[in-house]
Design goal:
Elements: E1 10-11, E2 20-27, H1 31-42, E3 47-50, H2 58-61, E4 66-68, H3 76-80, H4 87-98, H5 104-123, E5 146-147, H6 157-160, E6 167-169, H7 178-191, E7 195-197, E8 200-208, E9 211-219, E10 222-234, H8 243-249, E11 258-259, H9 267-274, E12 279-280, E13 285-288, E14 301-303, H10 317-325, E15 331-337, E16 351-356, H11 359-365, H12 373-384, E17 407-413, E18 420-423, E19 426-427, E20 434-436, E21 442-448, H13 467-485
Parallel strand pairs: 1-8, 2-3, 2-10, 3-7, 10-21, 11-18
Antiparallel strand pairs: 4-6, 5-6, 8-9, 9-10, 12-19, 13-18, 14-15, 15-17, 16-17, 20-21
C-alpha cells in the first residue's frame, strides 16, 4: 500500500489514476488562494482550487479586511485627506517594518505596484468608501476606509520614511471586513469558471523527477490524485495551530495562550519543505493585546516588572505588544492617570493591580523596589512637559505628562491577558511566488503565497495591520500568473 507524506512527494510513477486533470492546482481558499486562482484563470489556465474546509475563508476571513496600500502620489483616499504618499516612502517603510527579515525585492515591487493593485481590487468588486478616519484605531467601527495602521508616525519609522496612513479597509460596518472581502474574491473565482472542491485535505505533493506535477487530496475518505500540468500553488496559511512546529521553530509563542487563525497547521509549509523548499524566519510571530481600545490608553506608559519603560508607546499596538512579550517576569504594566483611564475592553482581560495618589504609591502596591517606577515616571513627566522623550522618542500629541491623580497600573499578563498571535515564518519565495530551495533556485512547478511563506509581514517587531492581506493578495496574484505561464 502506498504511503503518503507531507514530507516527501509521491513519485508520479506510483499514481494509479488521475481523478482531476487541470493546468494549475491551488491549495487553500483564503484571499491568497482566491487571488492566485483568479489570475491563473484570467491568464487562460484551467484552474482547480482545493479547500479543506466546507467553504472559503482561512485567516483572511477572520481579519479586519484591511490592506496596506500607498505610494505613487497616494490613493484617492490618501489624496482626499491631504496625504501625498511616494513610492520611495512606501518602500522605505516596508523595509523598516521588515527589519532584519525584510525581503527588499518584494518591498520594492509591492511599492511600485501598490496603486495598481488597489485598482485591481476595486475591479474585482471590493468597495471602498474613500474617507479618512483620524486617530488611533485597531479597526474602524464604521465603514471608513483610511486609517493609521502601523508605526508610520512613530520613531524610528518617521525618520526613515515620510509618514502617511496606508491602512485601506473594505467598506463594511463594524469589525470583521475580512469575511466580505473573501466573499467577493470567491464570487470572482466562480465567475471565471474555477473548479472548486471543498472538504479536501492535501496529504502529499506529486513529483516527476525534480518537478512538482500534482497533489494527493483526501476527499470523502478516499485518496484523489490531482494532475497539474503547469503548477501547484500552496496557500494554506501558517503554523500557529501546530504545537510540534511551534516548539521546534517558534517556542516564544508558548508564553501566550490565544492563537488566531483557521486550521493553520503548517501543511503547506511542510509540503514545500518536503519538496526541497527552504523555510525562513520561522521564529517570527505577531502578537497584540488590544490595549489601544479605548483610545485614551494610547497616551499611557508601559513598564516592565522592574518599573522600566521599553518602547515608545505611540507606535503600532502590535509592535508595543511584541516588545512587551520580550520583557522578563511574564507581564507588563500600562500606567495611566485619571485623565486617560477608561475601562478596558473585556476581551483584553487587563486588570487593575495598582492604584495611588502618587506614582510612589502605585510603585508600593506593585511591590517594586522604592525609587524604580516612581523615578521612571518623574523622568518621563519632566521631559513630557517639555515635549520630549529622550529615551524612546515618543512624540506629541500622544506624548503627554501623566500627572492627574489618582493613578492606576493595568496588568497585562502574557498568559492570562488576551495576547492574540500568529506565525510569520514560512517558505522562501521569489517575487513571482516560486518556492525556492536552500540555494535560492526555484523548485519547478511549485509556488506559494500568503502566510505559508515569509513575505512582507516578516518581522513581528515591525508588523503593521494590512501587511498580511497586502502580501497574500498581491503575491497570490503573482504566484497564480506565473504558474499559468509555466
Amino acid at each position: 500500500m502506498t504511503e503518503f507524506s507531507l514530507h516527501r512527494p509521491l513519485p508520479v510513477a506510483e499514481v494509479p489514476e488521475w481523478h482531476f486533470d487541470t493546468d494549475v492546482v491551488v491549495i487553500g481558499f483564503g484571499a491568497a488562494g482566491a487571488c492566485a486562482a483568479i489570475e491563473a484563470a484570467d491568464a487562460g489556465a484551467r484552474v482547480a482550487l482545493f479547500e479543506r474546509n466546507s467553504g472559503s475563508g482561512g485567516a483572511s476571513a477572520l481579519s479586519g479586511g484591511e490592506i496596506y496600500i500607498g505610494g505613487g502620489g497616494g490613493t484617492d483616499a490618501q489624496r482626499a485627506a491631504g496625504f501625498e504618499d511616494t513610492t520611495e516612502a512606501l518602500a522605505a517603510y516596508l523595509k523598516a517594518a521588515g527589519g532584519p527579515c525584510a525581503d527588499e525585492a518584494k518591498c520594492d515591487l509591492y511599492a511600485q505596484h501598490s496603486l495598481a493593485h488597489y485598482d485591481w481590487l476595486k475591479a474585482q468588486g471590493v468597495p471602498y468608501r474613500g474617507n479618512y478616519l483620524p486617530g488611533k484605531h485597531i479597526e474602524p467601527v464604521d465603514d471608513s476606509t483610511l486609517i493609521w495602521s502601523g508605526s508610520e508616525a512613530a520613531e524610528p519609522f518617521c525618520d526613515i520614511a515620510t509618514p502617511a496612513p496606508r491602512g485601506h479597509v473594505i467598506q463594511h460596518a463594524g469589525w470583521g471586513g475580512g469575511r466580505p472581502l473573501v466573499d467577493i474574491l470567491e464570487a470572482r473565482t466562480r465567475d471565471l469558471g474555477v473548479e472548486i472542491v471543498t472538504d479536501a485535505r492535501a496529504i502529499a505533493l506529486i513529483a516527476d523527477g525534480e518537478r512538482i506535477v500534482g497533489a494527493v487530496q483526501r476527499i470523502d475518505n478516499a485518496n484523489h490524485f490531482v494532475k497539474a500540468s503547469k503548477g501547484v500553488v500552496l496557500a494554506t496559511g501558517g503554523f500557529v495551530f501546530n504545537e510540534e512546529m511551534r516548539r521546534k521553530y517558534c517556542p516564544e509563542t508558548f508564553k501566550l495562550s490565544d492563537p488566531i487563525g483557521d486550521k493553520d497547521d503548517g501543511t503547506g509549509i511542510l509540503l514545500g519543505m518536503g519538496a526541497g523548499g527552504d523555510a525562513i524566519h520561522m521564529e517570527q510571530f505577531f502578537t497584540t493585546c488590544p490595549w489601544t481600545m479605548p483610545e485614551p490608553h494610547a497616551y499611557g506608559v508601559f513598564v516592565n516588572v522592574a518599573g522600566q519603560r521599553f518602547i515608545n508607546e505611540d507606535c503600532y499596538h502590535g509592535r508595543v505588544s511584541r516588545y512587551a512579550v520580550d520583557q522578563p517576569g511574564g507581564k507588563v504594566y500600562l500606567l495611566l492617570d485619571c485623565a486617560h483611564f477608561s475601562q478596558p475592553l473585556d476581551i483584553a482581560n487587563m486588570r487593575i493591580t495598582g492604584t495611588g495618589e502618587t506614582w510612589a504609591e502605585v510603585e508600593a502596591e506593585l511591590e517594586m523596589p522604592e525609587g524604580t517606577l516612581s523615578a521612571t515616571m518623574e523622568f518621563y513627566n519632566r521631559h513630557a512637559r517639555e515635549g520630549r522623550d529622550p529615551l524612546f522618542g515618543k512624540r506629541q500629541p500622544i506624548l503627554t505628562p501623566l500627572e492627574e491623580g489618582p493613578f492606576v497600573a493595568l496588568e497585562l499578563d502574557f498568559h492570562d491577558s488576551y495576547f492574540s498571535f500568529f506565525t510569520l515564518g514560512g517558505l522562501r519565495t521569489n517575487i513571482d511566488g516560486e518556492v525556492l530551495d536552500r540555494e535560492g533556485a526555484p523548485i519547478a512547478g511549485l509556488f506559494a503565497a500568503g502566510r505559508c511563506t515569509s513575505g512582507l509581514p516578516a518581522w513581528g517587531h515591525g508588523y503593521s495591520s494590512g501587511l498580511s492581506l497586502a502580501d497574500c493578495t498581491f503575491f497570490g496574484r503573482r504566484a497564480g500568473a506565473k504558474a499559468a505561464q509555466t
